[in-house]
Amino acid sequence: MKRIVILISFMAALALCASAQTYIDFSDMAMVKTPWPMPDNYPSGMYMNWDNFYYVTAGIWAGEGPGFQVLPTPKTVAFLGGPMCDIRIPCHASIKLIGPNVAAFTPVSIQVAAGWLPSRVVVSAYSNGKFLGHTVWNLTTDLQTLSFPNAWSDLTEITFIPEFVPTNSNYPKAGSLVIYKLAVMMH
Questions:
Q1: Average pLDDT score, the chain
Q2: Cα separation of 155 and 95, whole Å?
Q3: 24: burial class by Cβ within 10 Å (0-12, 13-18, 19+)?
Q4: 22-186 has which CATH code?
Q5: How many CB atoms lie within 10 A of CB 36?
Q6: Distance (Å, rounded) from C-alpha 175 to C-alpha 167?
Q7: What is the pLDDT of residues 70-97, one digit of tens each?
C-alpha cells in the first residue's frame, strides 16, 4: 500500500512539473513583413523583456536568409543579429524577467537556426546579476533543438551574443540567431 501511495505521489509530482513547462512559439504574434522590436511582457503574463530582439514572419520578409525556414507555412519568429546589427554597435540581446509576480525561470530547450550564415553564439546565464555560466552554440541555417545546461535554474536573465565575422565577404557580417520555440519553466 505504501508503495502505491509513493508511486501516485511521484507521478503527481511529475505531472505538476510537466505542466509548469511553457512553450513560447510566437504563434500569437501578428504577421509582419518587416522586423519589429519584440514587445515587453511577451507572452502576456510571463513578465519577460526581450531586449534587442526583433520579430518577423518568416516566409514574407524580403530580407530574410535561409535560416528563416517556412515550416510548412509562414511563421512568426524572434531573432537578433544579421542586418539589424552594425559594426559600431555591439550585437547582443537578452531575455530578462521584469515583473513582480515571477521570481525566476529555468530555460529547458530552444529551437533555433542561424539566420543568414553559420554563426557562433555565446549564451550566458544570470541570477539577480550574478553570472552563473555560459555556453557556445555553433549554429547553421538548419533548424536544430538545443538544451540549456542543467545547472541553469532560477535565472533572471539570459544573454545572447552572436559573433561578428570581419572576414565574411557576404552581407551581413554579424552573426545571427533565429528562435522558433523556447521552452521554459517559470518559478
A1: 85
A2: 10
A3: buried
A4: 2.60.120.1350
A5: 12
A6: 12
A7: 778 899 999 999 888 866 566 899 999 9
